[in-house]
Amino acid sequence: MSTIDYYNWRYATKEFNSEKKITNSDLEIIKESIRLSPSSYGLQLFKVFIIESQKLKDKLRKVSFNQSQISDASHLFVFCNYTKVLEKDIDLYIQNKSLIQQMPITKNEGYGVFLKKNLLKKETEETSIWTNNQVYIALANLMTTCASLKIDSCPIEGFEASKYNEILNINERNMNAAVVCAVGYRSKLDTSQHEKKVRKSSQDLFEII
Amino acid sequence: MSTIDYYNWRYATKEFNSEKKITNSDLEIIKESIRLSPSSYGLQLFKVFIIESQKLKDKLRKVSFNQSQISDASHLFVFCNYTKVLEKDIDLYIQNKSLIQQMPITKNEGYGVFLKKNLLKKETEETSIWTNNQVYIALANLMTTCASLKIDSCPIEGFEASKYNEILNINERNMNAAVVCAVGYRSKLDTSQHEKKVRKSSQDLFEII
After folding, report:
1. What whole-number distance in Å separates Cα of residue A55 and Cα of residue A105?
2. Span A185-194, pLDDT tens digits
3. What are the residue ranges spanned by the domains of chain B?
4. Mean pLDDT of chain B
5. Which of B 147-186 lie inside 8 A of A, CB atoms?
6. Which chain A residues in 55-74 lie under 8 Å from chain B, judged by CB atoms?
7. With a CB-CB cutoff of 8 Å, which residues 71-130 of chain B face chain A?
8. Per the CB < 8 Å rule, is B136 touching A137?
């Protein structure tokens, strides 16, 4: 199977089978696809809440235009981007880099100073737009990896982010619910699984110069 | 090979082998990975410029902080998001959907009205932020598919978008250069290929509720 097979197989699942749950081993693979996703400067300025609690999924559905996927999916992934870059975020990255690459921290300190100079001065809105973008790379990798495991997914932007932020209690943690992905198994009754995928032609989408 | 192998294999290539070019058949697979990428409402409100011209790559390098990947990569992918949604974008989608799914266009017209109601009223900035996000899904799928083909890539945000827009002449086409990806083959001299990947631990990145 190639990645193209995965992209062709997947579709935005409208109805999940609420009885069928993802196994722990598959969940670990999905998490790893998110964790390994590239991000700007490698900083990973986001957190992913994985909602297993039925009670919480039901609560979030109410602030997601009552979309059934929110409560019927096996797991709900809520990608939350950082709205501010703090000094400690960069310090943690430099520490982590030094540890993983087995270098003395002094060798990476200059890079830390460079990152701070560039990132700490950014306005909240600019930071938020930028970290929000990064989250979509991780979202894409989650969807691809799910498809490779024959697990269904549905990315969802239709939800009240401010209500999510309240419910997850992340406002004071400088985070914002950016995008959600419902993950699980399709219901046999979901008619959208039989619809042909609609995409622009190559001629419309690309310009080769 | 699993997707996790692809994510582990890939790295942000710092030095490309400027002699080694992507084959046409691989280029078609990479394009297909972008074309099949999901996007909000399936509208694909972006265009991808694929730069093969050495002269143009050299010119773009000058407005990309002189990063060597811009001119040394085999192909440069410039993802340009739409900054406005026009009525014709939605009409084209509805026509395309009707054609691909072999439905009478009248069956989809209601959905077209719904999309117009929701999207045409958006401010330019809100639209641009939203379409920019979508582009990162396609970027991620490009990188994953390249890795599956053992092709290297480097996503780049460090470039002067306004200069790209001028050079590509897309300002009056309501598009903006959102993100760039250099694609090709690593140079043997690129020492960053030997560095261990730096990522947060699962404990730091996820919260399971």
Report:
1. 44
2. 999 999 999 9
3. 3-83+124-205, 86-121
4. 96
5. 148, 155, 157, 179
6. 56
7. 93, 96-97, 100-101, 129-130
8. yes
- For domain A3-85+122-189, which CATH number applies: 3.40.50.1820, 3.40.109.10, 3.40.50.300, 3.40.190.290? 3.40.109.10
Instruction: Check pLDDT > 90 for residue A124.
Output: no
pLDDT by residue (tens digit) across B87-140? 999 999 999 999 999 999 999 999 999 999 999 998 888 999 999 999 999 999
- Chain B residues whose CB is inside 8 A of the A141 CB are 3, 7, 140, 144
pLDDT value of residue A123? 87
CB contact under 8 A, A29 and B4: yes
Q: Which of B8, B51, B199 sits opposite A44 (nearest CB)?
A: B199
What integer pLDDT is reported at residue B1 of this predicted model?
A: 81
> Angle at which helices A87-100 and A109-119 pack, to 10 degrees?
150
pLDDT, tens digit, for every residue of A154-201? 999 999 999 999 999 998 899 999 999 999 999 999 999 999 999 999
The dihedral sign for the CA sequence B26, A33, A28, B194: positive
Is domain B3-83+124-205 classified as CATH 1.10.3720.10?
A: no
- The predicted-structure confidence for B50-89, as pLDDT tens digits, reads as follows 999 999 999 999 999 999 999 999 999 999 999 999 999 9
Give contacts of B 21-60 with A, CB under 8 A: 29, 31-38, 40, 42, 44, 46-53, 56
Asked if A35 lies within 8 A of B205 by C-beta distance, the reply is yes
Q: Distance between CA A85 and CA A103 in Å, rounded?
A: 24
Q: Using the beta-carbon criterion (under 8 Å), do A7 and B36 form an inter-chain contact? A: yes
Residue B76 — φ and ψ, nearest 5°? -110, 120
Q: In the predicted model, what is the mean pLDDT of residues A119-134? A: 92
**B135 and B178 in contact (C-beta within 8 Å)?**
yes
Q: How many CB atoms lie within 10 A of CB B83?
A: 21
The reported pLDDT for the residue numbered A38 is 97
The continuous run of DSSP H or E covering A152 comes out as strand A152-156
Could B144 and A148 be called an inter-chain contact, meaning their C-beta atoms sit closer than 8 Å? Answer: no
Residue with tokens 């209690």: A169
Residue B5: exposure state from Cβ atoms within 10 A (0-12, 13-18, ≥19): exposed
Contact B157 A40 (CB under 8 A): yes
